[in-house]
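Q: Can I borrow your eye for a moment on a structure tokenisation matter? Would you mind producing a protein record, from residues through to fold? Write it directly below this note and I will take it from there.
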Amino acid sequence: MKFVLGKFNTEFTLGLVLVSVVVTVTS
């Protein structure tokens, strides 16, 4: 369970970084 939660947190963090990069580039 902890591994799944950690994997989700990692993907969620990468998602936030990707969104931040897209917003920075497009603005």
